[in-house]
Amino acid sequence: xxxxxxxxxxxxxxxxxxxxxxxxxxxxxxxxxxxxxxxxxxxxxxxxxxxxxxxxxxxxxxxxxxxxxxxxxxxxxxxxxxxxxxxxxxxxxxxxxxxxxxxxxxxxxxxxxxxxxxxxxxxxxxxxxxxxxxxxxxxxxxxxxxxxxxxxxxxxx
Length: 157
Fold this sequence. Notes:
Helix content: 10-25%
CATH superfamily: START domain
Number of strands: 7
Order of helices and strands: EHEEEEEEH
Largest sheet: 7 strands, antiparallel
Number of helices: 2
Structural class: alpha+beta
Mean pLDDT: 88
CATH architecture: 2-Layer Sandwich
Strand order of the largest sheet: 1-7-6-5-4-3-2
């Protein structure tokens, strides 16, 4: 009988209203260098690849981050899907997660836009990954999105 690993896929969903046009939102979020601006400084986030002005499907972006205990981690994500002015998806190709699938959705509403982030992630490492998730990874991810929410509110309100 084959052994099946018990995996626990997590989902984080965040929605935020911003009082800006869809064009302004798309311009900001589809510019890869702006990722630095919305990442907490304590993660010492550094983009290590050359970046184009605008993202495109197939774009690979490499980073160095120190998410936990000041230990540097190399990370690579690929922009896998873009529907102009509606959504884009990035997925980890190399990094700390077994699965990292991050959807960025934008919808025009009265007086602004609704931005929705949907993140599916799995830490991996079976029992140890589950334990690490419960102890600090899930909280760390939530704090990153909390920081991002505040930075965007400060910038656009």
